Amino acid sequence: MSLSLDSYIPELVRDKISPKGYETLAKVKKFVEEECIPADEVYFKQLSNDPTKRWTEVPPIIEDLKAKARKLGLWNMFLAGYKDGPGFTNLEYGLMAQFLGRSHVAPEATNTNAPDTGNMELFAKYANEEQRAKWLVPLLNGEIRSAFLMTEKGISSSNALNISLKAEKTSQGREIVLNGTKWFASGAGDPRTSVWLVMAKTTPESENPYKRHSVIVIDAKKALKTGNAKIIRPLHVFGFDDAPHGHCEVQFNNLKVPFDLLDKEGEGFTLIQSRLGPASNREIFGKLFITKELFINDVAERRIELERIKLLVLEAALKIDLVGSKKAKKEISIAKIDAPRTVGKIIDWAIQVYGAEGVSQDTPLTKLFMSARMLRIADGPDEAHLNQLGKAEAKKSKDINELYSKIYAKTKRLSKI
Amino acid sequence: MSLSLDSYIPELVRDKISPKGYETLAKVKKFVEEECIPADEVYFKQLSNDPTKRWTEVPPIIEDLKAKARKLGLWNMFLAGYKDGPGFTNLEYGLMAQFLGRSHVAPEATNTNAPDTGNMELFAKYANEEQRAKWLVPLLNGEIRSAFLMTEKGISSSNALNISLKAEKTSQGREIVLNGTKWFASGAGDPRTSVWLVMAKTTPESENPYKRHSVIVIDAKKALKTGNAKIIRPLHVFGFDDAPHGHCEVQFNNLKVPFDLLDKEGEGFTLIQSRLGPASNREIFGKLFITKELFINDVAERRIELERIKLLVLEAALKIDLVGSKKAKKEISIAKIDAPRTVGKIIDWAIQVYGAEGVSQDTPLTKLFMSARMLRIADGPDEAHLNQLGKAEAKKSKDINELYSKIYAKTKRLSKI
Amino acid sequence: MSLSLDSYIPELVRDKISPKGYETLAKVKKFVEEECIPADEVYFKQLSNDPTKRWTEVPPIIEDLKAKARKLGLWNMFLAGYKDGPGFTNLEYGLMAQFLGRSHVAPEATNTNAPDTGNMELFAKYANEEQRAKWLVPLLNGEIRSAFLMTEKGISSSNALNISLKAEKTSQGREIVLNGTKWFASGAGDPRTSVWLVMAKTTPESENPYKRHSVIVIDAKKALKTGNAKIIRPLHVFGFDDAPHGHCEVQFNNLKVPFDLLDKEGEGFTLIQSRLGPASNREIFGKLFITKELFINDVAERRIELERIKLLVLEAALKIDLVGSKKAKKEISIAKIDAPRTVGKIIDWAIQVYGAEGVSQDTPLTKLFMSARMLRIADGPDEAHLNQLGKAEAKKSKDINELYSKIYAKTKRLSKI
Amino acid sequence: MSLSLDSYIPELVRDKISPKGYETLAKVKKFVEEECIPADEVYFKQLSNDPTKRWTEVPPIIEDLKAKARKLGLWNMFLAGYKDGPGFTNLEYGLMAQFLGRSHVAPEATNTNAPDTGNMELFAKYANEEQRAKWLVPLLNGEIRSAFLMTEKGISSSNALNISLKAEKTSQGREIVLNGTKWFASGAGDPRTSVWLVMAKTTPESENPYKRHSVIVIDAKKALKTGNAKIIRPLHVFGFDDAPHGHCEVQFNNLKVPFDLLDKEGEGFTLIQSRLGPASNREIFGKLFITKELFINDVAERRIELERIKLLVLEAALKIDLVGSKKAKKEISIAKIDAPRTVGKIIDWAIQVYGAEGVSQDTPLTKLFMSARMLRIADGPDEAHLNQLGKAEAKKSKDINELYSKIYAKTKRLSKI
């Protein structure tokens, strides 16, 4: 028996859920538990290990699940506040997401998977009739998939102002020519992906820096056929390629496409803001971090951590040299516990400094992270070392108690004087 | 201008506040900001520094505030769900407490101060008519104060089962004789405290260990007059005596009082549960902590922390010996940052192990904590040392960049082979 | 220019390094910086992406590096205290390891890579003449590689007492028959691996549970040829297969091998102790963790973390429902910062509970970890959200200052009365 | 029996201790354990509770201990590298400090107590013959005590550049007139304090801001007699007055003293640097913290912490309203664990922002800290709540296991298709 639905609903929101919302929530829970979680392992088995097929064949179980979900009315629940959506609130969807998040396949099975959710919201809000018919409708039906191409390498990707992909209108203004590279384009690897939303600098001449970018709507399959757009490679995230979805590097080499924008020219920044939420206006860090007070302090903390680890390890090494490893038990335990976790913490920080690049195969950071993490288990887990060290420490208690008995006796004598 | 009331109310609860609740909330905010916070400093000035007067005279400003609060209807808001209360919910009171907690005098000014709140709740729930008239009514009127005597030294105070204060009924069962000591009796130092609720072992013969205790209602002023009950001393908490309220040690030496219980004999445990909430059923730790897995691990972590601090300090000392303190800047900074905060963390843990005793003047822990905490400021604040160390580290970046330029060049050459 | 060697040597150990040690340390630093780090990227490029070739072809650059290292005398530095070694101390090797650890290829290039280091130490300490000649000598020469097969699935691998691989001697005692499965056998995937050290239960009849295991020396290539030993698959660690080295699952199905033990029968436990250090004597956790005090507390902390995240997310969702996402900026920022890092922390804990299984592809934990980690970057890095939220908070300071000006004025008036 | 001396000495430093150092270390350990720790309680008992006598009478036990220590050669061990000292190294003294730090009285008993240690070092380094004879010799003999008056209220005290105490030379330059206030002058409350070192702005006209200050040597007792120097009050640190030592506020009102400087005029900054170590060159924070990136982030983190605590508390309050406190056990536990520790953490941060003022009685922060800290114990310790909550969570495991049995069964069925 699974836990009751009510145990997942905080008291504070209970009266804010509509009867339909509650009923659907119960269905979501049941669907995830009975259909999706059992399908997760099957999905990964169906996913090919062949480096090419991984990106051309979608595990068939997903379509079965989509059919079931749609029949149950578990479809597009994310689209709150739009007439195109099924009419739930964000709050209700937030509660459903508790369950959807438990299964790898559940979001796609219910057409509530990133990045399509964000893209559908954009289309619902900004698309013209033609765009709605061509892209939003099949997306809402789960027939095609989409990708948003924003991030560019070496710049702080989350600040749209930095985005520099060139998009020059042809003389008549009916077409536009793209040159440059995007990366971490999530979903761009999927064989079903039919539409790209590409953030590009279409209007560099605008005085207002927030009015220089537009979001271009591109027919992905056509573009790839020309050979002027190429998916270079999937980026890995901690070693995972996330196939068939993928986080891809996409290159544009004189790609000519119709001048088809989402919303008006120069409105790219506003669209991005509404898609990504409030975080998209920061300055670059990474390259220049040395001048930033926050990082200066972080760097100092890292130095402290490194120095103390180094000394603990060397103390253990010296002790082994002098008395052998048996008698250096305490020192070895201390080094084995503290070194991998400290190193792991430092690498995690470094990943954060590097941003997307940090989690990809383009730096060795994820490999280093994995090695340090593994050491917390491989060489006897932290907990085993801690337990052993703690017990050795606790054995001193007899001596300490004796010492303090003497001390108290003396205190008593002194107090009488 | 102060911040708007609405900014303090989470969206999730907004529709759960009654109009009266909202109106009172606004009044509480205004009262606290305009009357109570300005009075805090005055209150402490009016509090005598004389070791005796501190406990016999209450700062007069408190009665002015009480009169104002009562007029505004800001009175007993904590008493939710009882006919004796003003009719707010716990949720509404929870929101009011945001403001009341900002001022030292606000809770007492609105008759919502501990420990009287908990005691009034007990009376409201369990008192007979006589007890209600004699104690609850004046407590609700803010005319008298009360104390709950539960904790005993050297045992885990939060487990009522451990409580051992002897209370023997006289032959006719009309009176009861108390022998033993209670401590950390909050409010027992206040000159206005008129009633004690004393948790005592009245029925040791009961087979059920949860039915051996009762809560005895004692007229505090009468008891003190007999000389058989004595307030030995106020316990300090981090050096503060919290006068005139106080956390007191109270000694009973053949104190004979009427057999007047709150609820029935043997119900002490149940009453305590309802007063303290769910935490009161734990086993002792402290004395026997060495056998507990949780503490074993904690002890190991402390050992690691101590060893690394020791090595960092000795590295700095040796460096000073060898090259003088100017050139040992980095090592000194590291030791100065890491030693006091590590020591502070260890002492904080030790306080937790010792419980109430740990925060009192009966162990040196609070003095040690204060010294360590002071060092994080006195000798140049952590932040200054961190900033300096970080800047020194950052200066290495030029060399590191040069090294990596060479490395990349070589990688390129190797890749071509 | 790289940083000076001296800046890597703590003052406390400077006088404990021999002239030869210091000279070699300088060579190690130079070799790592000039030869190994530049080769890292080349190594991974040379490593085939073909699922089979990854495990049959070793990147050729490694042999170039080995030749160079050996010429420089940078070889087997780990082997401290044995006549077979080059005569450094553990302390000196500890300092060298600072540099070796910076490059993926450096340990193998200098024949100081795990798990061969530990295996060579075992051979150096316990091998008979024949074993030394056959395995230790080529290992020390870097001609072959080795694997230690200890861990078994579903049991707490770090407690050798739990190890249950069956190894029955044939009637004459000249041979031994193995049945069962080992996993996380590091190095077992390498095409050069020629010898396995297998921890097995050879003597279940022994009364002393610490005398039931032995370490069997097996010719790996021969064993694989019989078909009675099979490498089932490489385990992944955070998605990495670590080819060509590998952490493998190895199955024995009536594998008959010569009765060739390292040290005597029944001494397996002692050998393991000396190989793994002091951590190998713990009880299982994982399966039964619910009864352990330490985990009970951890579980409680996780519950607290989950509840608070849930409420923060729902507060943001409701606010979006009511006032739109622009005005819910603060609530969205809070949820975006706190959710992924909290979830990441919880998953990291879960990995630790599951041990080796937790980092492998047999649980979804590493995938979940990666998703949560990515979110701390993908959706606007934590730092950007924090900065924005902090600035919004700081804007309140004007109102707060005004409020406190009024408060101080009133305090002054009250103090005069 | 106490723990062996050797267990306190890291392997890394063992060969760096001279025979005399080792012997003295043993004496220090014995002296602290047998004489000083037992005397600590006696010292505090001898210290008067009378608000005046606390500052005029020194507990007599201290002179007994000083006599004993001196006889044992345990005297001035801190003074490393000066001919006036006993000839230990900083490293040896660092090891001795491990023991001295265990007892409140040990540093003073061995004449190694702050702030006299720092002051003696300054005299040893910079004093002229007259100053040496008059102040250094009796300080080294433990006959008098000293104070260093540096910190000034409302400015960042650790940056000497901010120091503004006026000190105007009289026309002939033989005397100097001081006007202004110093605070946190440690040791200034002690009846034995005979000399003040006062950092003052003597040379505001200097172009180099680092050459505007000097350290004036003042006969403290004479100065106080004139009435033009006054000790206004002892500052408290977490409620402690640290009598008879004290951290005092000292006011100068046209105090005329001889023009007697330590080192030359304008050298104050250099002297301070050498006394305080590398931290003394930071900019103010506190007042202006809103503009600092580091604090902006900290403020954001505090906001997150406050919001989540608020929601957890309100969730518990609402649950109590709806189903009573018994059924709201889980929610109450969560709030009781998480609220006090979060609040404590926030206050600790606030103290750090305020610096010295933050630990004194001039802000309510220490009182607030104490209340929050007490709550982690008073209302059932964190650990008891955690244990109970964890056990309740663990009870769900049966349901979860059943759910996953079903899930695995389904996965198996699906895999076969």
Automatic annotation (TrEMBL), chains A, B, C, D:
GO BP: fatty acid beta-oxidation using acyl-CoA dehydrogenase
Acyl-CoA oxidase/dehydrogenase middle domain sequence ranges: 147-254
Pfam families: Acyl-CoA_dh_1, Acyl-CoA_dh_M, Acyl-CoA_dh_N
GO MF term list: acyl-CoA dehydrogenase activity; flavin adenine dinucleotide binding
Keywords in alphabetical order: FAD, Flavoprotein, Oxidoreductase
InterPro entries, per database record: Acyl-CoA_dehydrogenase (IPR050741), Acyl-CoA_Oxase/DH_mid-dom (IPR006091), Acyl-CoA_Oxase/DH_mid-dom_sf (IPR046373), AcylCo_DH-like_C (IPR036250), AcylCo_DH/oxidase_C (IPR009075), AcylCoA_DH/ox_N (IPR013786), AcylCoA_DH/ox_N_sf (IPR037069), AcylCoA_DH/oxidase_NM_dom_sf (IPR009100)
Cofactor(s) the protein needs: FAD
GO-annotated cellular components: cytoplasm
Residue ranges of every copy of the Acyl-CoA dehydrogenase/oxidase N-terminal domain listed in the record: 26-143
Heme among keywords: no
Domain (Acyl-CoA dehydrogenase/oxidase C-terminal) ranges: 279-392
Matches recorded under PANTHER family: ACYL-COA DEHYDROGENASE FAMILY MEMBER 11, MEDIUM-CHAIN SPECIFIC ACYL-COA DEHYDROGENASE, MITOCHONDRIAL-RELATED
Family (UniProt): Belongs to the acyl-CoA dehydrogenase family.
Subunit structure: Homodimer.
Protein name, UniProt field: Uncharacterized protein
Taxonomic lineage: Eukaryota, Fungi, Dikarya, Ascomycota, Saccharomycotina
